[in-house]
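Supplementary notes for students who missed Thursday's class. We covered one full example, reproduced here. Read the sequence, then the structure, then the short commentary at the end.
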Amino acid sequence: MISVPGFEGRRVAVFGLGRSGLTAARALKAGGALPILWDDSVSGRMQAQAEGFVIEDLTTADWSGFAALILSPGAPLTHPKPHWTVDKATAAGIEIIGDIELFARAIAALPEDERPQVVAITGTNGKSTTTALIGWVLNRAGMTVHVGGNIGIGVLALPAPTPEAVYVIEVSSYQLDLTTRFAPDVAILTNVSPDHLDRHGGMEGYVAAKRRLFQVMTPSRVALIGVDDDWGWDIVSDLNARKLRVSTITTRTPDAGGGLHRNAIPVADVAKLRPDSLPAFEQGRFIIVDATGGQLSADGVRIANLATARSLPGRHNAQNAGFAYAAARAVGVGHDAAVDGLMTFPGLAHRMETVATLGRVRFVNDSKATNADAARQALASYDRSFWIAGGRAKAGGIDDLSDLFPRVAQAFLIGEAAEPFTAALGQTPHRISGDMASAVQQAAEAAAATGREEVVLLSPAAASFDQYPDFEARGEAFRAAVLALGALPPQAESTGTVPGDPA
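Structure (token representation):
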């Protein structure tokens, strides 16, 4: 656990007793603060009370006695309207922060020679895979690595800092809204597309939240920005104006003049440099992915052929690999070790995960694709697929995916979005399956009937909340339905056994 100094002997209000709230309370208490906890859920309050925390109804508390409000990222800061605790904290004139900010202050309080390095990743899509991939690459290179934040373990529950450690932290827009001093050594923005607009009051507010990852950067730190979208380029322009170290990652092939997109920075001619002699991504350096050949290169120097990577299929994963390579080099990993990490990455559950095969049919779980932009990456990775989609539709539905519909052999629709997705698909073969088990059964039968190598792809392009508590539960339902057909998971397929059978 990471203890948080700065509030010794002072009362600190903590609202929201999920993973981040409870770990924040423990970290504050370890640092000498007096955390005062509250949650709308009785079970949350009971758990906190069982740990010995002070529970106090914050609706009637005297807020003038609090030093700060630690707000759960699940509670709205500004939109659709501020949470009632935000109103009370604002009226009392106290700061409102979250667990990522507490982590930042704990690191900043250390003597400079005792501070670990911090790599932080945000973005609309790809941030979890990129976070896990970076953690894998650094760990395989022999570094002391702690991975957490919005993925896996809450950031304050990670091991206490040591000088040789590297924290690899996924941060959401909700968490970034609650930061003021967070300044990672390597700050990564994978991409930006419309998402969570209700919580940020529109696209402008959402992009502003993402920009907060770079709010207190200094020239000694590194920014890695995905520039396959215009929002990324706008942020690059801002950071260049601040004379910060910015490198861009793109899947777009440069033109003959070395340019990539509007506002592209001219690249240096380093074609004669060996990859292991490249500096740690100085300002203006590009990493480029050839979207057709899977070649990863930095300013014309080939880094790796991603076509041979075990768990990085598709253009989006190639870009994730670019971020991981650049981040690893920036924190001191050599070229060969960084490439080895990319090639051996085992993948992440619910993100382009091959869960099993049945005959010539492969089943891919991409349940994390909760919006159309994420589903685009999966659909574009296969020449054809039997597509399972649906759930609770987000703004725009799947209209923007129409250029990929010719790759859909047949779509199988589930959840609330089935009817609107039907309208969007038009003449593309499809049927309303309703639930996951039916969709898997029908898709498997249709794919097997072709006699070809086929892919059944769960990439819902919608939220899960109409049928499941989260995308993980939806992905596990897909996995269970696939295995119920008698399909073999990858490990069993390679040994000729099924789980539970003697080898």
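Commentary. The two ends are 40 Å apart (CA to CA). The chain is about 30% helix and 20% strand. If anything here is unclear, bring it to office hours.
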